Amino acid sequence: MTRRLVTRPARRPPGPRRGRRPGVDAPVPPILRTAAAYAWRILVVGAVAYAVFSVLGKFHEIALALFLGLVAAAMLRPAADRLDRIMPRPLAVALVLVVSALLVLGAFALVGESVANEWPSLVREFRQGLDRIQTWLSGPPFRLDSNVLSDLQSKIGTYLSSHRSTLLNTAVSGAGRVVAVLTVAALGLFCSVFFIHSGDRQWGWFCEQLPQGVRERVRGAGKAAWRTFTGYTRGIVLVAATNAILVCVALFVLGVPLAVPLALLEFFAAFVPLVGSPVALGVAAIVALAAQGPLVAGLVIVLIVVIGQIEGHLLHPLVMSWAVRLHPMVVALSVVAGAIAAGIVGAVVAVPLVSVIWSVRQSLRPPARTREGGPTDGRRGPR
Fold this sequence. Notes:
disordered C terminus, 2 domains, two-stranded antiparallel ribbon
């Protein structure tokens, strides 16, 4: 028999496969694939956030009125719940709102009376204080020319007299803004009545309109958001009241005029975290400089440092750490971003908004699992 010889084809040298271009069709590195996945998600979230803020910007009066209504409900609902035990619910809500309105109007009336009584002496002290400041700046170590300071005062007076019509138009437009503010306040009061009276039933009705599978999660997220919002609101009011009392007592001791109005300014400024309180105390330092001289102004600056330390290391950790679990850098960035987006109102609303969003995210987050397979809350181990 003849044996057939089977010839095998020669092996081709290793190289790129047919139909693939080297360097172009190579597999994507995992880190690049992960970065791309996060990038498009961040773009989507940014677009949604921009759309939400654009809509809110178109209806910012309504959004602000709803915010004020929620603030009033967070502060006054516990009192209405206690009065509900001894009187009908509508009467309890009306009594709480009337007493709160009288307290607010009484505070503003006290401030107005204090300003009216001290205004003549304050104008005289300011004029004398400006002369003292001019003398102080012309001496060592500044040694500024007194003629330059006098020329600066004359230029300011000339500017005000020549732009009187512009200032008048600004005042007229400011009157229109006052009407808008009163409208927002009235709408916020209207919303607060329903939030205090039956806010929980309104939220329950909203959850009932959702699909069955997401009702419980949305209801739990709403409870977490409300718990965070009420905790932040009550905490910031307590911090602001404490700061205002300390400022009022210190300014009375130092003999600075307008102590009560400056304390009220400190109260409202404290609602802007990290920024508002130093700005309000800076205004108090300017008043002290003009009325009492550099020594008292220096003591007010020391007061700024002391109150800042008390607020940052005592009040905020004790009062607000259980309600708002945000890093100070996140708080600062939120305040700046809110101020850029919507001015003072945005700076006030930014921190509670970010806190509520974070609490909702934490409540909707699925529970982590331990190695044994049991659920855990992420802080204290398995439950």
